[in-house]
Amino acid sequence: MKLTASLSLFLSALWLLLSGHYDILLISMGVASVLFTIYMSHRMKIIDDEGHPIHLKGQFFKFWFILSGKIFTSNIDVALRILGVKPIQPQLIKLKLDQDSDLSKVIYANAITLTPGSASLHIEDGYLFVHTISREGAEELLNGDMAKLIPKGITGENQ
Amino acid sequence: MISLTIDIVLLIFLLVMAFAILRVHHLLAVAMMFGLYSLLVAGLFMVLDAPDVAFTEAAVGTGIATVLMLATLAVTRVTHEKELKKTNKRALFIVVVTGGLLLYGTHDMSNLGDNMAPAHTEVAKRYIEKGQEETGVPNLVTAVLASYRGFDTLGEVTVVFTAGIGVLLLLRRKQKPRIKGIQGGR
Amino acid sequence: MNILLTGAAIAIMFTMLLALIRALMGPTVFDRVLAVNMFGTKAVLLVAVFAFISGRPDVLDIALLYSLLNFVGVVAALRLVQRGKEYAQKKLEEDAQ
Amino acid sequence: MNLDLIADITTAILVSFGCFLGIIGGLGMHRLGDFYSRLHAVGITDTLCSFLILSGLAFQAGLTLVTVKLILVFLFLFFTSPTASFSLANNAWNWGLKPENLPVELAESYEGDDS
Q1: Which end of chain D offers a freer environment for a tag, N or C, measured as fewer CB atoms within 10 Å?
Q2: Positive/negative CA dihedral, B144, B145, B146, B148
């Protein structure tokens, strides 16, 4: 119920921001579309912690802050490698996924993909296959620099 | 100036894309390129000051048409097109005649941005001046489509709906696994 | 300011051209889809820049739409590749063994 | 007046740097050898390049609904691009496409080493 309320709040805010016109006819259309979306999401059973994670609050800001710094530096790094300043040494590595929940595994794999220079390819038996463009990037991942960033203690199940 | 440049570049991209669609024989890539083609067309509409048409083109051409084409490919077994060795004369004839007729038809159109064109002198003024208060819709093109030409749009929607039903009927699968069919097929 | 944005639009179109060439050359179908994805992203940026050049920010709605549709197109294409013919063939061989 | 000038200069720096990165990404599509390496080139254009260009435009728009739309465009791109990249890479892997130019002995010794 809490999730439904926050989802409808979020959708209404999105609608109001995107429309930019505030008279009765248009607002009522917006209400109708929000209600329809909520109904559809209920039928698809996607209103849960994974679809709408409101329990991830405080620690996420720190995570995003450090991740954006990493994205920035790795962008510059890959750009230099493309321009030929640094060498291109493709690597394929295998990382152990010891995160406790599916959600944090997804965050881990997507964080690896988001930083240019490393892309997750495949998940098999608790191992993540990662393609990196440089040896330094591969060593950094193997040291577990990225794994330490992932917020701890988020489980996909608790209501 | 910049819109002219964007126009020319987009038209060149369109030409390149059309030739690419002719040359590439992987149907999946062709479907994706058709999506890009209509995205480029939508970009042209945008530069020609018609954001609403661009919106429709993007949603229908890039979104729905691509997904439908991919869904069609998913129920066929072969993703590679057969190469045609010789040109089909009748098809070429029909294409050339249709193209010629269309080119001839453009002579009757008024020039781009012509103030004295019939469409701009009579009804457009009323639409622009009274559109919002008469229909209550802030977007002018939506007002024209959904209110002033409502019956026209109803007819169009009926056509689109019929086409949608046809596509749904064609794509509906009778049995679940189609993968097994590969052994027997071809 | 308009001159700068014009330059930006030209640079973005140049990048689109590079992606287009890769889409034409791409040895595998994945290269093509990757190039198409990149082309779509750059098209979103081009639309956004064009909205500011022409001074009509409502064009930005098209950029919003593109950015969602591009994703839908790529994922739909890949769902297809996943159960494409070659994949099915591999499965059949595995079953036979 | 002065504030406008600052906003203009910020836009100029951000947008030109973003376009530069975009062109590098486009070049990367051709300079990098195989499909998996090209993923990283696309990563550049999807993350920092689009962020710089869109934030540069946001400095022109100021605190209006337009900025909100720019932020939304960026968020859509930012959240969908890793998903699209991953599904592309995962499909290529499942299909059997092997990465090229790998120094084989290194890859072997790295594979055993986990944690």
Answers
A1: N
A2: positive
